[in-house]
Design goal:
The protein is mainly α. 78% of the residues lie in helices and 1% in strands. It has helices at 2-24, 29-42, 50-75, 81-104, 107-127, 140-157, 162-171, 176-202, 218-238, 244-268; strands at 212-213, 216-217. Strands 1-2 form a two-stranded antiparallel sheet. The longest helix has 27 residues, at 176-202.
Length: 269
Amino acid sequence: MVLELIWLAYVALGGLVGVMAGLLGIGGGGIMVPILTALFVVQGVPHEHLAHLALGTAMAAIIPASTASLLSHRRHGAVRWEIVRYLTPGILVGTFLATFIAAALPTRGLAIFFAGFMTLMSLQMLANLKPKPTRRLPGPVGLGGVGVGIGGISALVAIGGGSLTVPFLTWCNVRLPMAVGTSAAVGLPIAVAGALGYVINGWGTPGLPGATLGFVYVPALLLMAPFSILLAPVGARLAHRLPVAMLKRIFAIMLMGLALQMVYTVYSA
């Protein structure tokens, strides 16, 4: 009975992530990682693997959503492919290498980093801070370096990179619709490199539950991914009917609450 409820929780989590992504254009790891951590505690996952398994599973779950988002923005011609070309090598390197750092960190250290980053992101959302477009894009080498940073942080908190890529591009005078579409395009290599890194780093680790690929818990992935894709259009439709600015503030508070809950979970497990 408990296992069936956990399966339902994965389905509900996938749906929630999809709705929030469609409604606010954000979500992903900020929602998945803390809730997955709590569910893994219920399933009896060893304490030392809680954060790693949550991050790896969330990263893999971002792949189908990122693919759908990329295709949608591509159809609308909202992707600056020359930026994607120069950002992607750095993103692949930064994301992949950061998974090795994550694997070497203890669960509590990862939880604190995650909570700190999500709190900063939430405060930025509450204050509605937006960088002023004051400069041009750097050259290929500079974009590659930026990609390493975006990929590295994204891997450590299991996000698609939008909360970092969009502000950077708008700061560099890229129009917001193009910044969002370009961010969606680089979100896919972030998710793929991150998931691959967590699979490799977790391969053969003792104590993980059955049906895992490294630090990716396959049942959760298979239950979350379809519903996140299915319900994302619902969130997009609601965005035209609901007060998104107010919902964004509520979501920011919820993110902080989930991040703190994750810290409490790993310290009390």
